[in-house]
C-alpha cells in the first residue's frame, strides 16, 4: 500500500495517531511551545505558541491533512494555518470539542473563507458540551464530498451511535440557547478554574490560565521530589511529569495528567515540567484537592 503523510499540530493525541497509522500514513509533529517564562510566572494559554514557519517546513508533497487540536488558536493563527492548507490542497481536521466552553473570543477555522471551509472537517463532542462523556456521541461538519468518506469509515468503525443519546443531544442543542445553558456552563467552569487556582497562587506555583475547556496546566519545576524516593520499576525510567504524577497521587492523594504523553517522543521534553489538572469536579472535591495540595509547601524550592 502506498504510504502518504499526515501533518499533525501538537499537542498530539493518541487516538489520532492510531487512526493515522491505521491507514499506513505517517504522522509529522509540529509542537506547541510552552512560554519561556512558564517556570516563573502565571501565563496565558495564548503564550503556548505554534511556529507557523516550522509548520510550513513540515509540509511535503505527500501531506494530506493537518490535525489541529487542544488549544484556542487566535484568528490570525487559524488564518495562517488555513491559507497554508489552501495553498497546498491539504485537508484540515479541526478538533473543536470545547466549542461551547471558551473564555476568550472563539473562531471556527471553517468560517474564515469558502476555500478553507471546503477543505475542513470540524469535529464536535456531545459528551464535552453537556458534561456526559460516557455517551460517546459526537458530530462532524464539512462539505459533502468529505462527509461521504467519513460515513464510509464510520460504518466500519463503530457502525452506529446510540439513538436515545442522539435525540437527547438534538433537544439539548435546541434548548441550550433559550435556557442560557452555554453561558451558565462557562460561568460555572470559569468559577471552578478560579477556585482551584487559588491554592496555586498561595503556593507560588506558576500555571497557564486556560482560554477554554476545564484543564489547568501547572508548572512543577519548583517542586522537589525527595532524592531517595522509591519509584516502582515501571515508573522509575519515565519522564519527570510521569514521576511527578505518580508521586503526587501516592503521597498527597491528588491525581494529575502527565502532559508529555500528548507529545511525540522527540518533543516530550517540552512538557516534562508541567502537570494537567481537571477542574470539572464538585466544589467539595476541589476544596479537598486544594487542602491536600497545600502539603506541597515543604517540597518547594526556595
Shape: globular
Total of DSSP H or I helical runs spanning 4+ residues:
11
Number of strands: 12
What radius of gyration results from the CA coordinates?
A: 20 Å
Order of SSEs, N→C?
A: EHEEEEHEHEHEHEHHHEEHHEH
The stretches of 5 or more residues where confidence is low (pLDDT under 50) are 1-12
The description of the largest β-sheet is: 6 strands, mixed
Class inferred from helices and paired strands:
alpha/beta
| Mean pLDDT rating | 91
How much helix, percentage-wise, in residues?
A: 25-40%
Termini separation (Å)? 57 Å
Q: Provide the spatial order of strands within the biggest beta sheet.
A: 2-1-6-7-8-9
- Tell me what portion of residues adopts beta-strand conformation: 15-25%
Overall description:
The chain has 302 residues and is of the alpha/beta class. Helix content is 38%, strand content 17%. It is built from eleven helices and twelve strands. The chain has helices at 14-22, 52-58, 75-88, 114-117, 126-129, 144-157, 163-176, 181-203, 233-236, 240-251, 283-293; strands at residues 5-9, 26-30, 32-33, 43-44, 49-50, 63-68, 91-95, 120-125, 138-141, 207-209, 215-219, 274-278. The strands form three sheets. It has a six-stranded mixed beta sheet, sandwiched between helices. Helix 4 (114-117) links the parallel strand 7 and strand 8 (120-125). Helix 8 (181-203) packs parallel to helix 11 (283-293). The chain starts with a strand and ends in a 9-residue tail after the last helix. The relative contact order is 0.12. Residues 1-12 have low confidence and may be disordered.
Amino acid at each position: 500500500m502506498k504510504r502518504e503523510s499526515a501533518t499533525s499540530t501538537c499537542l498530539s493525541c493518541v487516538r489520532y495517531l492510531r487512526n493515522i497509522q491505521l491507514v499506513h500514513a505517517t504522522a509529522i509533529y509540529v509542537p506547541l511551545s510552552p512560554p519561556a517564562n512558564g517556570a516563573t510566572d502565571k501565563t496565558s494559554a495564548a503564550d503556548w505558541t505554534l511556529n507557523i514557519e516550522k509548520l510550513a517546513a513540515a509540509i511535503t508533497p505527500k501531506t494530506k491533512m493537518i490535525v489541529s487540536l487542544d488549544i484556542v488558536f487566535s484568528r490570525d493563527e487559524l488564518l495562517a494555518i488555513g491559507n497554508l492548507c489552501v495553498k497546498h490542497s491539504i485537508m484540515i481536521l479541526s478538533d473543536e470539542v470545547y466549542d461551547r466552553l471558551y473564555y476568550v473570543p472563539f473562531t471556527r477555522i471553517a468560517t474564515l473563507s469558502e476555500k478553507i471551509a471546503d477543505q475542513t472537517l470540524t469535529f464536535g463532542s456531545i459528551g464535552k458540551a453537556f458534561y456526559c462523556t460516557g455517551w460517546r456521541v459526537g458530530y462532524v461538519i464539512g462539505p459533502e464530498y468529505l462527509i461521504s468518506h467519513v460515513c464510509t469509515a464510520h460504518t466500519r468503525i463503530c457502525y452506529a451511535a446510540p439513538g436515545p443519546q442522539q435525540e437527547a443531544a438534538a433537544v439539548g442543542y435546541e434548548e441550550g440557547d433559550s435556557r442560557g445553558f452555554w453561558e451558565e456552563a462557562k460561568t460555572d467552569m470559569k468559577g471552578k478554574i478560579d477556585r482551584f487556582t487559588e491554592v496555586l497562587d498561595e503556593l507560588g506555583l506558576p500555571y497557564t490560565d486556560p482560554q477554554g475547556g476545564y484543564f489547568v496546566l501547572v508548572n512543577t519545576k519548583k517542586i522537589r521530589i525527595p532524592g531517595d524516593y522509591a519509584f516502582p520499576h515501571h515508573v522509575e525510567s519515565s519522564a519527570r511529569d510521569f514521576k511527578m504524577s505518580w508521586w503526587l497521587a501516592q503521597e498527597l492523594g491528588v491525581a494529575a495528567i502527565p502532559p508529555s504523553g500528548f507529545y511525540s517522543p522527540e518533543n516530550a521534553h517540552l512538557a516534562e515540567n508541567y502537570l494537567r489538572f481537571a477542574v470539572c469536579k464538585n466544589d467539595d472535591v476541589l476544596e479537598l484537592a486544594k487542602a491536600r495540595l497545600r502539603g506541597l509547601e515543604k517540597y518547594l524550592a526556595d
